[in-house]
Records
---
Amino acid sequence: MEPVVSIKNLNKTYRGGHQALKNINLDIYPGEIIALLGPNGAGKTTLISTICGIAQPTSGSVTVGGKDIIKDYRDTRSLIGLVPQELTTDSFETPWVTVNFSRGLFGKAPDHAYIEKVLRDVSLWEKRNNKIMTLSGGMKRRLLIAKALSHEPRVLFLDEPTAGVDVELRREMWQLVHRLRENGVTIILTTHYIEEAEEMADRIGVIANGEIILVEDKAALMQKLGKKQLVLDLKQPLSAIPESLASQALELRLDGYQLVYTFDTQADRTGITSLLDALRRENIEFSDLSTTQSSLEQIFVQLLEEA
C-alpha cells in the first residue's frame, strides 16, 4: 500500500538557530490513526505545520497523495484538513456560514447537503444559526473540526484536539475521530494525553528533541516494551523476601501482604512455574493472584528517559 503522507529526511531550523526537526522519516498510510506523543517543545506542532505548508522545511521532502508539498502546494493543501490548537473563529458569524466559507476557500462548489452532514457529525446542527460567540469552548473546538472537513480532505491533522475540554467531551471527540476514520479519512493527532493515544491510535510515534525515536503499532509496542507483573495476595505477611528467592524479581507491598513478580512477556520462559514451586517449598501461601501490564504512560516515560 502506498503511503498517503511520506516524510523523508525532514529538517527544520529556525532563524535563531534552533533545530526543531532532525532528520524525520515517517510514512502514514490511508485510513490509519497515528498519534504523535511528546513533551512540550518536542517538535510535534512544527512537524504538522511543515507538512501543512505553514512552516517551510530547511531540507528534506514531504509528499501528500504522491505530490510534493512545495512544488504542488495547492494540490496537497486541498488534500489536508488542519485543526489547530488555538480556537480561531469569527465570533460574529454562525457555524453554517463559517463552514460554508471555509469550503469556498478551497475552490469547492457549494454543497449544502455535505455541510449539513458535517455539522451533524460534530453535533452542531442544532446550533448552525447561532452566533459563534454564544457557543461553549467544546462546541468551538468541534466547529474547528467541521471547518477542517469542509473541503472533504483525505488527511486530517488534529493538533492537541482535546486540550482544555472535560472528560465527557473528550470521549465524544474520540468517537467522532473513529467515525471519521470509518469514512476513509486518515488521521494524525498530536497529544500529551496518554489515554487519548491509547484509546484512538493504530500506531504510536514518540517524538523528543525534534527526533522521532520510535514509531510502532500500538499493540506491538505495549507487548514489546511493556513489563507484566504477577501479583500474589498472601495469607500471612512476610517481613522480608526469603534468601532462597532473593534472585527473583520480587517486591513486597502492602505491609508484606502482597508479593509482586515482574517478568518479560517476550522471554522464552516467564519463570512463573519455578517461582510458584519455590513459594511452595517455603510454605508461603497466597489467597489470590492476578496479572497487570505496563500502561502506555509508563512505556512513554521509559522511552523519554532513554532518549
---
Amino acid sequence: MSYVLGIDCGTSATKTVLFDSDGNAVASASKEYPLYQPANGYAEQDPLHWKNAMLDTVTEIICKSGVSADEIAGIGLSGQMHGLVMLDSGGNVLRNAIIWCDQRTQPQVDKMNVLAADKIAQISANPALTGWTLAKILWVRDNEPQIYEKCRHILLPKDYLRYVLTGEFATEVSDASGMQLLDVKNRCWSKELCSLFEIDTSLLARICESCEVTGKVTAHIADITGLRQGTIVVGGAGDNAAAAVGTGVCRQGRAFTTIGTSGVVFAHTDKPVIDPKGRVHTCCAAVPGSWHVMGVTQSAGLSLKWFRDNFCGAEKETAKLLGTDEYYIMDKQAETVAVGCDRLIYLPYLMGERTPHLDADARGVFFGLSAVHTKKHMLRAVMEGVAFSLRDCVEVFREMGLDITDMAACGGGAVSALWRSMLADLYGCEVKTLSSKEGPALGAAILAAVGAGIYSSVPQACGAIVKQDKLCTPDAQRAQLYEQYYRLYRKLYPSLKAGFSELAQL
C-alpha cells in the first residue's frame, strides 16, 4: 500500500499525519510553539520554530509508524495563510514572520486604497486588508527598510517549509490568493498590482496548482528525517482550502465551518463570485479550475482559549485529575446555562474583525454583564458570540446568491457537540462532522495522493476518502430564541464602531 504525509503549519502547532491511500490516519505527531505580540494588535512567529516542529514531527512519524520511507508516495503542505516570511539571498530568515491576525498595517491599507482601491478589488477579488500579505510587505518597507533591502524571497508559512524540504521557492494558487498580489480570476501573479506597489516579481515564488508537484525532498532533509530522497512535495493549500479538501467540499453547494484559532465559513463555487462590499473573501480553490468564498471570524477558538487561559485554572486542574481535556470540562459547564446566557452577549473581536466589518480597531465586549452572571454564563456567551459571528458570514453568502445545501464542521471547535448545535440552530440547516478529524492535514495528504497519481482528481479522491460521521439537526425552539439574540447582536457593532476607533487612538 502507498502512503502520503500531510503537514499542517498552524498558528498553535505544526501537525504531521501519515495516511494510507484510503485516507486512514496511521500515525501523527504535533509540536507547539509560541506566538509573540510585541505591541497591541501585533502578532508574530519565528519561522525556525515551524521548521523545527516540522522536522521533529516528520522524524517522529518515520520512527514510530513502522511504514518504510519508500512506501511514502508524496507530501502535501497546509498552513496558516497571509503570513509574511522574508529570506535573504542565502535563504536565511530576516525577521519574525508577521502572521495572519496581525493588525498593524492600517496606514499601509489606507495608502493602498488611495492609490488603487478599485484595481485591488478587481484583480485580487478582495478589498485591501490589514491581515493580508501585501500590506505587511509595505509595512516592512516603510518601517524596516534595512530588512526590506536584504530581502530576496517572500514566502508564505507553508511555502517556507516547502523550501526547507526541497530547496524550491514555490507556492500555489489558494494560499497565494491571500497575498493580494494574485490575479485571482486568471490564477497568476498580477504584473499590474506588482508594478503599482513597486514589488519586484523576482521576490515572489513560482505559482502552481495545489495538486501539482513542486519539488522533491533533498538528500540533506532525507538524512535528518528518514524520508526518502526524491519524495515528491505537491503545492498543497492554505489551511482553509486544505480543510475544504479534507472535508469533501469540492463541488458547488458544499460548505464547511471551521472553528480553529480563527473561525471560517467556506463555500465552494465553480466560478469567481465576488461580494461588492468586500465582506467575504474570494480565492482560488485547491481544486483546479474552481474558486471558493470565505468569511472569517478573527478570534473564534482564540476567544475560548483566551477565556480558558485567564479564567479556567480550576477546570485545568480538574481535567488533569480526571485524565480528560479542559475544553471538555468547559463544554459541560456551558451546557448548564440556557440559550442567551441570561441576557449576556459576547462580541468576539479580540484581534479586530474581518467578516462582515473589516475593522482592525474592533475589540471584544461582554454586553449585558450583571451581578447574576457567573463564569459559566460568560463561558457560554463566548461560544454563542463566536457562533453569531459565523452566522454573519452565512448571511453574506445568502446575499450573494450562494445556496449552501451541505454544511460540514471541522477544527478543534467542531469536537464540541454544543458548539455544533449552536451552528445548526443559527444556520437553520444540518451540520455534519466527518469520520476523519484531521481536516487540513488530510486535505494536504489528498492533494499529495493526486499529485502522486494514486487518484486522478481531487473530487475523485474526496469521494473515495471522505466519510460522514455525526449529524446535528436544528431545534426549532432553540433556533427561535437564538434568532432574537442574534438580531440584537447585529445591532451592537454599529453602536460601538465609533467608540472602538476612539479607543484605538488613546
---
Amino acid sequence: MRNAQPAAVAPADARCDSVVLLHGIGVGPWSLKPLERALQRRGFATLNLGYASRKKPLEALAEDIHAPIAEFAQQCEGAIHFVAHSMGGLLARVYISRHRPARLGRVVMLGTPNGGSEVADLLKDFSIYRAAFGPAGQQLTTTQAPVLAALPSPDYAIGIIAGCRTIAPIASAFVLPRPNDGRVSVASAKLPDMADHIVVKASHTGLPRHTIAIEQTIAFLSEGRFQAI
C-alpha cells in the first residue's frame, strides 16, 4: 500500500512553475481542492498529495511523500513551490530540509503552527487525542519536537498567511493567544526568517478556501510578496 497518493497532475507535461500541496492533519487532498483549482487556472502544474497524517511522525511522513514529489519534479521544468495548510507546513519544512528539490521555489503556509499550538498542549495527554491524531499530533505542541528544533533557518522564501476568525469560541477565548483562527494563533504562525506575513479574516479550516487567502497565495508564488489589503 502506498503511503502518499498523488492526485492528478495538471498539466502533465508542464513547462510552467509547479506546486506541491500538502494538507493538514486529519483531512486529505479534498481540503485543498479550491486552492488547487485556482492554481491550475493561473497556469501552475499541481500535485495535491494525500498522506497518512494521523499514523506517523513528521520525519516518517517526509520519507513517504518523497517518491511522488521527486517524480513530479522530473515532469516539470519550472520552479517547484510548496503550498501547505496547518501541519502540512511543518511537513514541508521537514521535507525540504531532507530532500530539497533542485529547483525549489517559494513556500506558502496557511495557518501552520510554526510555534506550536496551545490546543495541542491542552489535549496531548488525552487518549482520544492520541488516537485521533497519532504521533504527528504530539509534535504540534509549543514544546518543539526534536525534528522541528533541529531544522535550519530557511534560506528560501516563505510567505505565511494566518487567520483571525474562529468557529471554536472556547478555544479562541480561553486557550489560544489572541488573535487566532481557533486552532493556531497569529503569533504562532510566524517564523523569524519569513519573507512576508499577512492576516486574513478566516478560520483555521476556512483558510484554504478563503478567496483572499487563495489570491494572496498566488501573489506570493508569483511575486515573492503578498499584496497590500
